[in-house]
Amino acid sequence: MHEGPCALIGAPVEAGTGRRGCGMGPAAYAAAGLAEALTGLGFAVEDRGSVARGPLRDVHHPNRAIRNLAEIAAWTAALDEAAYAASRDSFPIFLGGDHSLSAGTIAGMSRRAAAEGRELWVVWLDAHPDLHTLDTTESGNLHGTPMAYLTGRPGFAPSMPGPAVPVRPEHVCMIGLRSVDPVERRALAEGPIEVHDMRSIDERGLAAPLAGFLARAAAANAMLHVSLDVDFLDPGIAPGVGTTVPGGATFREAHLAMEMLRDSGLVRSLDLVELNPFLDERGRTAILMVDLAASLMGRRILDRPTRSS
User: Fold this and answer.
1) Residue 79 belongs to a domain with what CATH number?
2) Which end of the chain has fewer CB atoms within 10 angstroms, the N or the C?
3) pTM, 2 dp
4) Which residue from 24, 40, 7, 18 is spatially nearest to 275, judged by alpha carbons?
5) Active-site residue 89, yes or no?
6) In the annotation, is 143 catalytic?
7) What does the pLDDT look like over 105-162, one tens digit per residue?
8) How many independent structural domains does the chain possess?
9) Among the options 98, 130, 253, 280, which is catalytic?
């Protein structure tokens, strides 16, 4: 883990999804006490405000279903730069915003890893693989494309700005998948991305597969990025998301993942994505996401505060 301060960086992107509300995510994390939780763990915390989207370029694509391509391209470029800059001297936590933001944050972190002579590995905690390209998306919602973009799948140039240092597919571990389109299923079958869907988790548990991936990452002296989507979690405990998919991770499975990631000592950055406060119930999804971030940053079970009833 990085020894510098935690930098809280708002990424109020909602152009990648079909409904509004994700842009309120950064404020919801503040209200849920993220900064206070990190301070309580002994970290210096710097609230660096929200990233500003860059200027829009005139971009087009023959897939007429695509929505907001110019906005997503601009957000991706801005977040790429923000991640690269912030990771020089801090542990950046990106507060989303929909999952399209990861196209920028992970691209910037991959550049940072390369600058340090390392490679970026990614733990992708999500109900969806987000492996659509601009050619294959039928919904046109670009929060379904960041992992295809980051791993160098074709069809993004010249509309999108990079990534300058693609992430190797074999360095990606997806956990919690349970909503995969046929095109994405074929991409996963053809490629070396490590996948542990919810059936696998039901059969084998979460600890063994995650431990195996982390052992490989440690042997490679990798830099690790964690991208945590609210819909990784079961909607029964995390209703504040626009893409609810039944059968997600339980409270303890999610905390176990965070605790194991912390124990690895490899994590250098975190995305918290797809929180939609408009759909939440009295902030309970935001509070749970803050608790999970705290577990990633070192909170142990015996240190967990007891909430008053």
Assistant:
1) 3.40.800.10
2) C
3) 0.96
4) 24
5) no
6) yes
7) 999 999 999 999 999 999 999 999 999 999 999 999 999 999 999 999 999 999 998 8
8) 1
9) 130
